[in-house]
Amino acid sequence: MEQGSIFDLQSLPEGCVSNILSLTSPSDACRSSVVSSIFRSAANSDSVWEKFLPSDIHKILSSSVSPSSLPNFSSKKDLFLYLCDNPLLIDNGSKTFALEKWSGKKCYMIGAKQLFIACVDTPWFWKWSPLPESRFSEVAELLDVCWLEIRGKLETRLLSPNTTYRAYTVFKLTETPRGLGILAEASVKLANGVGAEEGEVKSVYLDPRSVPSNTGAHRQQRGINRGIFRLFPWSARSSNALNPEEAVRDPRPEGQVPRERWDGWMEIDMGEFFNDRGDDGEVEMSLLEVKRGNWKSGLIIQGIELRPKENQ
Questions:
Q1: Distance of CA 279 to the CA centre of its chain
Q2: Of 66, 72, 183, 260, whose Cβ has the fewest other Cβ atoms within 10 Å?
């Protein structure tokens, strides 16, 4: 090619364009479809979207609770988009699997039944109950404990390799929560057959109305306090509630606050890790409040979700 000459990408065969797009990302492939009819045809081809699907996708689909109920997908792209918007219940209903739309990375949620929750089978401490808005058949509702301990683990081979993940506790509060306005500790760490790495321990609040005053978390939350009180109209009646005047005087230490999810649940960020363990390792997650000894109730646990870190 002569110096200064321009090469027209649209003159490439469609198969060559497909090969190029398969080396990009789902979002790049979708954007390229507006370039020309050749790019649009290549961007929708199975050869491109098969590369964006996990290599073990057939094994994952076969582990679905009801594989026969899955739609008949007309293309690999349709399958990809379905898994982005419809978390798949797998492994006898203990987990859900989904794909992140922009990158195609794997996302998992471990249901409460698959977690270790201290005293969860003692009926005056916890109870199992169905909740229509949950992905799982049952959720764990905290009735009354002074020792809050929730732990989960997942094999790193199930996750996308060389990817930074964040873990989140997914939960709701009942109308009358109690004792959740104090700091809990959340952590994430990688482990193998030899031992576990030490992970960062984060201070977190489980009740979003318990944000302390004059801290970064409070300044972040103060602007949405009114929205929170609208979301939780019962908050003014709760013994843990803080109205704006009380919050200004509250001296409690700083900690992370939950945020509302797109599906109506809340989540608290437990920490992040880089998955470079391949087939040899586990990620361990924990949420603890075992130091104060105060009685707590009104927490509904759906599970722990692992998904790729945003904007990576």
A1: 22
A2: 72
Cβ(41)–Cβ(21) below 8 Å: no
In this predicted model, what pLDDT tens digit does every residue of 112-170 receive, in sequence order? Answer: 999 999 999 999 999 999 999 999 999 999 999 999 999 999 999 999 999 999 999 99
Q: Quickly count: other Cβ atoms within 10 Å of residue 21's Cβ.
A: 25
In 3D, which of 211, 264, 198, 206 has the Cα closest to residue 242?
Answer: 211
pLDDT score, position 21: 79
Rounded to 10 degrees, the C-alpha dihedral 258/227/240/234 comes to -120
Sign of CA dihedral 252, 304, 166, 155: positive
Pairing relationship of beta strands 106-111 and 184-191 according to DSSP bridges: unpaired
Residue 285's DSSP bridge partners are: 152, 188
CA torsion through residues 195, 199, 201, 204, sign: negative
Q: How far apart are CA 252 and CA 182, in angstroms?
A: 8
pTM across the whole model: 0.81
The pairing of beta strand 184-191 with beta strand 201-204: antiparallel
Q: How many CB atoms lie within 10 A of CB 310?
A: 9
Query: What would the two tokens of residue 131 be?
Result: 């909740």
Distances (CA, A) of 250 to 16, 123, 140, 182, 244: 63, 35, 31, 12, 10
Judge contact between 294 and 146, C-beta under 8 A: yes
